[in-house]
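Take a look at the protein record below and tell me what you see:
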Amino acid sequence: MEFVSCIICGSENYRLIKNLTDRLNPDSDKIFDLVQCECDFVYLNPRPDINEIQDYYNSPDYDPHSDSDDKLYSRIYSLVRNFAFRKKKHDISKFISDGKLLDIGGGRGDFCSFMKSHGWDVSLMELDVDAASVHNNSKINIYHKLDEIPPSEYFDLITLWHSLEHIHDMKSLFEFLHDRLNNNGFCAIAVPNYNAYERRFYPETWAPYDAPRHLYHFHFETLRKLLEDNGFEILEVKPLLQDTPYNILLSQKSSSWFNYLKSAIHTIQSLSNIFMHGNTYASSLEIICKKV
């Protein structure tokens, strides 16, 4: 375990706000401290270091790397995922419609395969994935670390879909983004929103806590400051509406019909607040930005 300072302001002054357990390992006795910096940023401290963290991704219940045997669940998950991919492509196409794409932390390469089918030249950077498990792997350039990517490779679009909150070395990441994005390139980022409305219904079991895999918990202002301080200008912010029912279902303590009914009610309440108040209460935020 390692202690870290705040990635937003550099301070080491924080207060404990919650003790968390690993939702994928309910029998573990390990406790993780969620803290809030004096600048308001929320993060895990201490946290597993870069070598320790790998053990926490080795679970059959971790969706980005999962091949579920539940056919109904897999079908629903695929439908929601494909809807999300189409929306992301639509949002991106307002700024750029083709070129070279690098997806950082893209799991088994589903988004890469989707974009490849729409004419993009795609590359995947995923630490813990083998070529055999990546969809259409013969058409996708696969890297396990950023420093494996040849220095001659530059990209028109770099995406981090729910991966920014997992990055240990934020300084190296932004150095890479500045170095490898073409001058007219764009970066697309999605993160869970710490101010999500549904979090009030699940104060202890909210799935996006996801300790210890989620190292940071952003809301718009802290994400904006991180990006601006690292030389990026935000061009557009949108809510990812499909994440609301998904996060609510994952946050349930049990799968009873009563809890499903409560989940449906909480989903309606949460979506209503997003429609009324915009990004403030979104489950997840989608950001399109560029270098300045």
